[in-house]
């Protein structure tokens, strides 16, 4: 939840050690309106952003511009306050992804939209909420236990949250789901989840990476994809799918992408050695037992054939079900072919660090299809839902 707004005098400011050589501007909490005892810039106590008001919309209607599906553009949101181990990030760019939309529409719920299991982790969803899993920005304030030298760092925020509110989480959260995210001018996160990034890419380009590319890298890590593997990717034109094509190719794997014919050439440019149409007969096009790893983002009624094309000992990993979450499994196929299944949600600890290194080395490139101002998030998410793009749709904050 957004922190309770307080005046600067109501917030405690640490006493300055006379022997401390840290510049005073980094430690004057009251002058900088108290967003942190260690702060770089002066900010108002209010910020602009997009609020998901949910079913508990009892907020004042002043300064409100309505967006579809209970989203509201607000100019009077309280700026978050850093806890001891937190950083405050000035958000420069964010991204549109399925996770934010699925959370808002309760797609994750198996109880017909029941709030009790409507989040990424299965925990109850609380409102109001600032969503936004993809963030590129700059650290402008740090908590008392964080090195003030981090102020000014350009960062990407790891969306899989293992620490929040000064405690380690038993079940990881997702940024912008169980806690506030990046659809606002400022956001708060535990310092360990703000990764310094050194890159010549723009903020918009960098904001295309966190959610989709970490999901893709996590699946490939879990399935131990390496040189010589043949990987089949469903839904290859989306953010996660196109990221998977690049990341698998960077590992030395051969990638086959399932995609609409109009997008085939672009996927080949990204590294796919072959593309197939969504309605192709996979057995006739590929033959049975020909694929080492299936990366599935679609599921749906054609799901059983994905197991048929897997070779004995093959690996199936999944992180999406845009074609429908309910599938039919012949268990004999699973055990007679010695297949391994990987449901991929929580990131392995090394995944985001490895992703940042790949970005900095230039192993992968951003694929930004369209860019919108954050205030036009409703238009951006509508375009996202039409699935006419390849890659990511980004949101810019001024």
Task: Provide structural commentary.
With 398 residues, the chain is α/β, with parallel strands linked by helices. Strand 15 (291-296), helix 7 and strand 16 form a beta-alpha-beta unit. The model is unreliable at 1-33 and 56-68 (pLDDT under 50). The chain has helices spanning 98-104, 203-207, 210-222, 239-250, 264-270, 282-286, 304-309, 331-336, 351-361, 377-386; strands spanning 38-39, 46-52, 64-66, 71-78, 86-96, 135-142, 154-157, 160-164, 167-174, 186-190, 194-196, 230-233, 254-258, 272-276, 291-296, 310-318, 340-343, 368-373, 392-396. The strands form four sheets. Strands 1, 5, 6, 7, 10, 11, 18 and 19 form an eight-stranded mixed β-sheet that branches. It has a six-stranded parallel β-sheet with strand order 14-13-12-15-16-17. The protein has a three-stranded antiparallel β-sheet with strand order 2-4-3, with no helix packed on it.
Key features of this structure:
single chain; 398 residues; 21% helix; six-stranded parallel sheet; disordered N terminus; alpha/beta; eight-stranded mixed sheet; globular
* DSSP helical segment count: 10
- As a percent range, the share of helical residues equals 10-25%
Question: How many β strands by DSSP?
Answer: 19
Question: Helix- and strand-based class?
Answer: alpha/beta
User: Low-confidence parts lasting 5 or more residues at pLDDT below 50?
Assistant: 1-33, 56-68
Shape: globular
Mean of residue pLDDT? 85
The end-to-end distance, rounded to whole angstroms, is 24 Å
Into which percentage range does the β-strand content fall? 25-35%
| H-E order | EEEEEHEEEEEEHHEHEHEHEHEHEHEHE
């Amino acid at each position: 939840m957004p922190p309770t707004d307080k005046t600067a005098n109501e917030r405690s400011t640490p006493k300055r050690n006379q022997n401390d050589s840290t510049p005073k501007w980094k430690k004057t909490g009251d002058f900088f309106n108290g967003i942190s005892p260690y702060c770089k810039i002066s900010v108002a106590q209010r910020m602009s952003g997009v609020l998901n008001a949910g079913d508990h919309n009892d907020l004042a209607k002043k300064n409100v511009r309505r967006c579809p599906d209970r989203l509201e553009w607000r100019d009077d949101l309280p700026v978050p306050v850093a806890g001891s181990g937190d950083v405050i990030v000035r958000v420069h760019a964010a991204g549109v992804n399925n996770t934010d939309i699925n959370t808002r529409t309760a797609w994750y719920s198996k109880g017909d939209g029941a709030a009790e299991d409507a989040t990424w982790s299965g925990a109850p969803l609380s409102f109001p909420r600032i969503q936004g899993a993809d963030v590129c920005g700059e650290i402008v304030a740090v908590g008392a236990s964080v090195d003030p030298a981090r102020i000014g760092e350009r960062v990407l925020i790891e969306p899989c949250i293992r620490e929040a509110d000064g405690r380690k989480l038993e079940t990881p959260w997702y940024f912008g789901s169980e806690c506030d995210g990046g659809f606002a001018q400022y956001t708060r996160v535990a310092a360990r989840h703000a990764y310094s990034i050194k890159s010549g890419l723009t903020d918009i380009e960098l904001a295309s990476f966190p959610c989709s590319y970490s999901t893709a890298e996590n699946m490939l890590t879990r399935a131990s994809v390496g040189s010589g593997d043949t990987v089949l990717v469903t839904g290859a034109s989306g953010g996660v799918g196109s990221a998977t094509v690049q990341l698998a190719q960077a590992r030395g794997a051969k990638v086959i992408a399932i995609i609409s014919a109009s997008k085939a050439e672009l996927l080949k440019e990204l590294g796919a050695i072959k593309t197939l149409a969504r309605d192709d007969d996979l057995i006739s096009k590929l033959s049975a037992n020909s694929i080492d790893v299936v990366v599935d983002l679609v599921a749906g009624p054609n799901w059983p054939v994905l197991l048929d094309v897997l070779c004995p000992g093959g690996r199936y990993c999944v992180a999406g079900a845009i074609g429908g979450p309910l599938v039919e499994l012949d268990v004999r196929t699973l055990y007679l072919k010695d297949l391994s299944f990987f449901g991929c949600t929580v990131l392995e600890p090394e995944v985001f660090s490895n992703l940042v290194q790949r970005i900095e080395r230039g192993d992968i490139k951003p694929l930004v299809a369209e860019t919108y101002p954050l205030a036009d998030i409703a238009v951006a998410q509508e375009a996202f839902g039409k699935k006419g793009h390849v890659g990511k749709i980004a949101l810019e904050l001024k």
